[in-house]
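Methods — Computational structure assignment.
A single polypeptide chain was analysed. Its primary sequence is given first, followed by the predicted tertiary structure written as structure tokens.
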Amino acid sequence: MSRDALVTDLYQLTMLAAYHELGMHEPASFELFARHLPRQRGFLLIAGLETVLDFLADLRFEASELDWLAGTGQFRPGFLDWLAGFRFRGEVLAVPEGTALFADEPWLRITASLPEAQLVESRLMNLMHFQTLVATKAARCVLAARGRRLVDFGLRRAHGAEAAVLAARASYLAGFAGTATVEAGRRFGIPVFGTMAHSFVQAHDSEAEAFAGYARAHPGRANLLIDTYDVEAAARETVALSKQGVPVRGVRIDSGDLGDLARRVRGILDEGGCGGTDIIASGNVDESAIERLVSEDAPIDAFGIGTRLDTSADAPYLDCAYKLEEYAGRPRRKRSAGKATWPGRKQVWRSLDSSGRIARDLVALDGEPAEGQPLLRPVMKGGRRTGEPESLEAVRERAAATLASLPAKARRLDAPEPPIAVISAGIRSAAARIDREHPIA
């Protein structure tokens, strides 16, 4: 998941070949940002920076990759020789992971030679777009859950193994308690949770036998799936098992009317002396279902969220872009209809009100006088990190603080209203100057 030199679009390499031929190696600044937020989103929770920095630090072309490129017949030997020594030696300024942003606000800025800054576009966007997408979905679930535990169950419905592992990371930094994806636990230190499958119950001659065997195999840690046959009968079997001195940590309901079933199960468990046994709900759950169940005071202690989380089902993509903002010391601006960009290297300045909520974001030119807290920070210089990798726990803490700072309208699940970033006078002046100097015929 690090070097991935050929995990790119062909046009990145064809542009690099042309830059190399033309001697275009002057410094360039590109910025990654979202043009618009999906209608269902009042904010974006930025995620994926650590994986991007790993990618940039390790980026290089292996001999086998260069041989394959040579075999395509599209590239000259001199260019391929140059690629053999390719390294990212640029500078990165970025908003820390776990920060909320809105439309037109840079997530990060890459400044490097034009070929270096260009080549990294596709993989950089691939990593940050997906993790930001999932982290934002997860954050909405966290807001809806009001303190109830959430676990990522999305591996089997994720779009590939890498997506599943990165979704686990993104949801954890957004506030989830953990994941069912084992590799994410090994790689990132995320707590791993699990119950059982219906097949385990079906493989036994009786549900009671299945429960007893599983609980004895995992003493004190067993979470039983109780909706294979009859939920209430399974809840009574859980009570009977507990009375035999075999404790059950939790029971999971994966189908049906989750609120109604949870109430019935809670009554059976409490009456049987199993008041400490948790109820876990799963099965096409998302933030809307969580909000409804929580508002109805359904006795659910935790939710397992899979398909709708790892695919961000209601908003499966972001309109984000990675655009050239400065080259060879001059601001650059795209002016195509509906996709125009603001020129120049930028900083985002955030001001909070007296209650600690976001009052205003100002997007200004780098170096332009402004008030507030600057969000973009140096994280890489000369192709090397400026500090040690940030711990996932620190990112979780920042994300929690960020969610608490969001205006109420941005936190809403239905018809959220994101704040609109103010574009500074300096940026508008630079755009007007470029438009005057290069009029559209």
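Note: The first strand starts at residue 27 and ends at 36.
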